[in-house]
Amino acid sequence: MRKVAVLVLFLMFTALSVVPARAGKDELVIGITQFPSTFNPNIDSMLAKSYVLAMARRPFTTYDPDWQLMCMLCTELPTIEHGLAVPEKTPDGKDGIAVTYTIRPDATWGDGTPITTRDVTFTWEVGKHPKSGVIPKEFYRSLYKIDVKDDKTFTLHFDKLTFEYNAINSFELLPVHLEEAAFADAEAYRNRSLYETDTTNPGLYFGPYIISEVVPGSHVTLTANPLWWGETPAFKRVVVRVIENTAALEANLLSGAIDMIAGELGLTIDQALTFEQRHGDRYTIFYKPGLAYEHIDINLDNPILRDQRVRQALVLALDREAISEKLFGGRQPVANTNVNPLDWVYVDDGPRYPYDPEKAAALLDEAGWNSMKRGIRHNAAGVPLRLEIMTTAGNRSRELVQQVLQSQWKQLGIDVRVRNQPARVFFGETVRKRQFPAMAMFAWISAPESVPRTTLHSDHIPTAENNWAGQNNTGFRNAEVDELIEQIEVELDRDKRAELWRRLQHIYAAELPAIPLYFRANPYILPKWLKGVTPTGHQYPSTLWIETWRDG
To answer: Running DSSP on this structure, what letter comes out for residue 528?
Structure first.
């Protein structure tokens, strides 16, 4: 206990000693718990990167805090009703659609170069290359042609008509005048991109801020973009300081070294509740429930976990209701599938896994793990039922949950070892390349009615051949799920689509490619003088509207 206490104090002291005091209300210092593994908007999927880049870039379309689709970089949201989206037949006779967008006429990159359709076509070339490592793969596969009308207007031709045909949120532009040379070797693009080699080049950005300083593992500094076309932001500088240890993060806030803790990547619910009791009068504190799905990805190539009975036993052995109540004050509801009850497609009639250690034990016996030696189950070949669980190091909430899970599984004779890594390694290498041997605990954060193609479709399993571009990290393969995903995407009738979603959730709950834990509520801890921060509850962070944040 003394060693643990000394370590925590050392981390807190170190964090405090390197963080300069706040310079004044021209500067906003935000604390988060993870450092981005890359700053390329199209490679890797990590919330820390999204949070930072949302201040320095703008997507064509996004979902606003009311969960409504809106334009950001485009001038008008195209719809079939208003004629900018036109259903059509593809050259091979499929039902496709042509969708026309116009780039804002005043939009420029941070070095003054106008944003044009040349950037659009170049981004498409990068995205559709099989070795570029860009996600999402399906978007670029489906986008088979681009017609350019002029420097600002273009038409995208998709080979299928989906219910979200005009949502191109993931079409993140790249500056052709800077990135074209880096893409000469497509397979090496990930490491040659200027987002990696020249991250502070202003020409990479076009938001209210540009990234002006990056100290890996420490902080990212953003300065106001003089060429930003929108509302002038209140702060000349924003410093995003990364403090992976959440106890140290809290200490930095209390000392004044940081101004706020981001709800998207900050304190855990249990810490926030305790913090509110002690210091609630000094800060604005609120909790935003949303579409963050905390779960444990299962590596289905693991011979132990390939058995569905073992996966079901792992869930039945967990008292998830008690975990939610005791650790999170009941504010984070238990998840039954990957679909949140806040989402309209959610159904509550699928398979459920209440705490039932007796049933879990029976399933393990049935699966052949029925010999107990020194408190650990073994199979007939003498192999112990031993697994490893990984997550982001320094995240107090996840580490506490790990301890509870480990203890509850041990009661059934399941030996689970803990091995954690810094977030940039865990997400940038281990999860992305499916290098976790058994279980990886983290969260997926989605948009409303987000079709889980990239996480569940068998075509999206990351491999060396696709340069680790998929997000189906479990290696889940199910032909019916693949077909349901295809059907959901192109079903325009809401009632029919709901039935497809229902079947998908039933299969997910039965197959358990991941262990559902709970849906997160994010605590935002802000100074009382900061106004205008509006959490979204979905994958697009509050920083997409940072120009509306105000000092008083």
So the answer is: T
Rounded distance, CA 147 to CA 211, Å?
A: 32
Q: In the beta sheet, which residues pair with residue 237?
A: 27, 223
- Specify the pLDDT at position 3: 37
Q: How far apart are CA 361 and CA 378, in angstroms?
A: 13
DSSP per-residue letters across 133-196: --S-HHHHHHEEEEEE-SSSEEEEEESS--TTTT--TT-----HHHHTTGGGSGGGHHHHSHHH
Q: Are residues 404 and 303 in the same domain?
A: yes
Asked whether residue 193 is assigned to any structural domain, the reply reads no
Asked if 304 and 407 sit in the same domain, the reply is yes
Residues 330 and 432 in one domain: yes
Amino acid in the structure at residue 505: Q
- Note the pTM of the prediction, 2 decimals: 0.84
Q: Are residues 275 and 422 in the same domain?
A: no
* Helix residue ranges per DSSP H, 411-542: 423-425, 453-456, 479-490, 494-511
Q: Averaged over 293-302, what is the pLDDT? A: 97
If one counts the domains in the chain, the total is 3
Q: In terms of domains, do 212 and 272 share one?
A: yes
Is it the case that residue 505 has pLDDT exceeding 60? Answer: yes
Predicted confidence (pLDDT) per residue in 338-394, tens digit: 999 999 999 999 999 999 999 999 999 999 999 999 999 999 999 999 999 999 998
Cβ-based neighbours of 1, under 8 Å, separated by 6 or more: none
**3-class secondary structure for 275-343?**
HHHHHHHHEEEEEEEEEEEEEEEECCCCCCCCCHHHHHHHHHCCCHHHHHHHHHCCCCCECCCCCCCCC
CB 507 within 8 A of CB 488: no
Contact (Cβ atoms closer than 8 angstroms) between residue 527 and residue 257: no
Tokens describing residue 287: 């909790």
Residues 273, 417, single domain; the answer is no
How large is the C-alpha radius of gyration of the chain?
24
* Residue 352 structure tokens: 């459920």
Q: Are 371 and 436 in the same domain?
A: yes
Cβ neighbours around 192 below 10 Å, total: 17
Query: Could you tell me if residue 184 is inside a domain?
Result: no
Letter for the amino acid at 135?
I
Query: Is residue 493 domain-shared with residue 382, that is, in the same domain?
Result: yes
Q: What is residue 122's three-state secondary structure? A: helix
Helices 246-255 and 269-279, axial angle in degrees (round to 10): 30
DSSP string for 195-220: HHHSTT-GGG--SSEEEEEEETTTEE
Q: Residue 52's domain spans which residues?
A: 2-57+207-289+522-551
Structural domain includes residue 424: yes
More confident residue, 294 or 4: 294
CA 437 to chain centre: 21
